[in-house]
Amino acid sequence: MSLSLSILLASLGGFIALALAMEKHCKHLLRRVLSPLWMRVLRAAGWLLLALALGLSFQHWGVSVGAAAWLGWLSVAGIGLVFYLPRWPWQPTQGKAATRRERKLAGVETAAAQPLERLHWLRRGATGVLLLVPVGVIGLLLTASPKPLHSDEAVQGQVGPWSFTLAEAQRKAPHQVLGTPFKAFEVRFCEACDDQIRAAYLKIRKPRSLRAAGLVFAGNRWDRWVEIQIPAKAKLSDQLWLTVEGKDGSVHHAAVDIDKVSPSLAEFIARES
């Protein structure tokens, strides 16, 4: 919750700094216009604060969810500022043109006031809907489960010279395809390691050779994914074996306990054995 509050405050601070960097809003908020140097400083500070909020979202939730969270908090901060500015104690004074306009409006017939009142309520309703949109987005984000590789069940380890994170794609028991159970997993290697890896494989039980290393992970970099078959009479002691082939031709293996990376799979194997 503190992270979400930090993103909200950074977004709000960024919008306020950008508003102060504009002559019209600067007069509104400070009753004076700042020097051009201060305008440039505030403009740069505003964009930096918005970038900071985006970076915090990406760091915690990843690119896809982080972008949605950032836009949600931007909406909350922007709408809050829009509704607060008219209540700011230092309101801009109206000139003669505004006074003449008020005199014109005062002479409008009563029959013409009803459509204006109806339009006023329509605007209020549309504003209420706009306020509910970011609230709904925030609610979905707060209830959404983290990405598998960011969950508590994800296992970190070392295979040869490369570090990795392995996790089940879904916290569910293996699904059946024509009576054969299958389970999906995701893996991520460190950013520096990824360029040195040709392929990665996963299977239950220790592989005897590279040809029997299991199924290869599809995708590259942050999106490596594979669905493996659960062999008959599998045991928890068989472990999950990650095989990684480097671009230099080297092959490395790493064993991971099944119950650590996938409690649902461990429960399924224990029930079937």
Automatic annotation (TrEMBL):
Its name, as the record gives it, is DUF3325 domain-containing protein
Lineage, top-rank taxon, reads Bacteria
Q: Membrane-crossing residues?
A: 37-58, 65-85, 125-144
**Does Transmembrane helix show up as a keyword for this record?**
yes
Q: Which terms are listed as keywords in the entry?
A: Membrane, Transmembrane, Transmembrane helix
Q: Which InterPro entries match?
A: DUF3325 (IPR021762)
The organism's taxonomic lineage, starting at the top: Bacteria, Pseudomonadati, Pseudomonadota, Gammaproteobacteria, Pseudomonadales
